[in-house]
Design a protein that fits this description.
heterodimer; A: mainly alpha; 13 helices; disordered C terminus; B: mainly alpha; two-stranded antiparallel sheet; 5 helices
Chain lengths: 248, 111
């Protein structure tokens, strides 16, 4: 375990995530402000900031908690907002099955959108040799650790400064721009660009669905269409797109 | 600030468990099992699709409706961020260029 912190890929994980950390931090900051302004007690706000580690689920739960909704409604909402992560866990399963169940669950806890995206970009295929597996584990710990620190740290700052940062400034938009940058870095083939276009359009078209299910519809539509297109159009790399990861 | 409610504390702990269980859902069973080939190929399109599905509505929708005006700071910020990305290829620059356009338009002109 300790060796993983000294592994060179631990640093790579930390530094790739650091490049998007300002976006995560701005988003965390605004989530902290929103939690305080919702009217929850300080203990509740701090507990949620430190434990839950799921921004969209936290924001979706706030109005329900304040309105005194039954617990199962709040948990069901969190579950639905998190459904995309179940898809990600199916994808990452071959990368983690050498661990014990507890470690696999810890691995899962760290999985925010960006960790998943950056990890699968760097390691498109699960390693089969011991050295490769160690590198992937070290990267994951670095990436998730950095993202937890920037998210939770910024949320705590947001809680402390809640009364001097109005939500209307819209600082959280920096988080969207961070995801935009990563999305551009992933668009390395024509089909991937198509995937983004379809997912975006489908998520907008089905925005009226409850519980952020439009995100799941967007992913499903994009994957299905790309699988069909894959059979008819040979995959060709985009001439203008960057070929390598350069998040740092 | 309000009083701490034990029921809310329990709800927050429950939400933490939901975070863990959804994100490790397919890690839980250790039975040998692999996805069929088409699903494995399909999942290679999932990361970029997930990002697009999360961000595109946040860029072009207001209160559940497609934006009806071009006077929206987000559109210009996204254009600036994407332009930066294709010019310089850095995510940090994408954030900074986008916010440099977003904040003056949003806070100065109320777009």
């Amino acid at each position: 375990m300790k060796a993983l912190f000294k592994h060179p890929d631990f640093r790579v994980g930390v530094s790739e995530l650091s490049a998007v950390a300002p976006g995560i931090a701005a988003w965390g900051l605004m989530t902290g402000v929103a939690m305080v302004k919702s009217g929850m007690s300080l203990v509740e706000v701090l507990l949620m900031a430190v434990l839950v580690f799921a921004g969209s689920s936290q924001l979706a739960a706030l109005p329900l908690i304040v309105a005194g909704a039954p617990m199962w409604v709040i948990l069901a909402t969190s579950f639905c907002v998190n459904l995309r992560f179940m898809v990600f866990s199916a994808h990452l399963r071959p990368y983690v099955m050498h661990h014990s169940l507890w470690r696999r669950m810890a691995f899962g806890y760290g999985m925010a959108d960006l960790n998943y995206v950056l990890f699968t970009k760097r390691y498109p295929h699960p390693a089969s040799d011991a050295a490769g597996i160690e590198a992937q584990d070290a990267y994951w710990i670095g990436s998730c650790g950095m993202s937890w620190v920037s998210w939770v740290g910024a949320t705590l700052v947001g809680i402390a400064l809640a009364n001097s940062i109005p939500l209307s400034w819209g600082l959280g938009f920096a988080g969207i721009l961070a995801l935009l940058g990563i999305m551009c870095s992933l668009a390395t083939t024509r089909l991937r660009a198509v995937s983004a276009a379809i997912a975006g359009a489908a998520a907008v078209a089905t925005y009226a669905l409850p519980l952020k299910l439009n995100i799941l519809v967007g992913i499903a539509a994009a994957v299905v269409v790309c699988l069909i297109l894959e059979k008819t159009v040979p995959a060709k790399p985009l001439p203008s797109a960057p070929g390598t990861g350069d998040a740092a | 600030m309000n009083q701490t409610d034990l029921w809310t504390v329990a709800t927050i702990i429950g939400m933490t468990l939901v975070t863990v269980l959804t994100r490790s859902f397919f890690f839980l069973s250790s039975k040998p099992w692999t996805l069929p080939g088409w699903a494995q190929r399909g999942l290679h399109y999932a990361p970029i699709a997930a990002l697009a599905a999360v961000i595109v509505p946040e860029m072009v929708m207001t209160q559940g409706h497609f934006i009806a005006t071009w006077k929206d700071a987000r559109v210009f910020a996204v254009a600036a961020g994407a332009a930066w990305y294709y010019w310089r290829h850095g995510v940090l620059g994408t954030i900074l260029a986008g916010m440099a356009v977003y904040l003056p338009l949003h806070m100065g002109l109320n777009w």
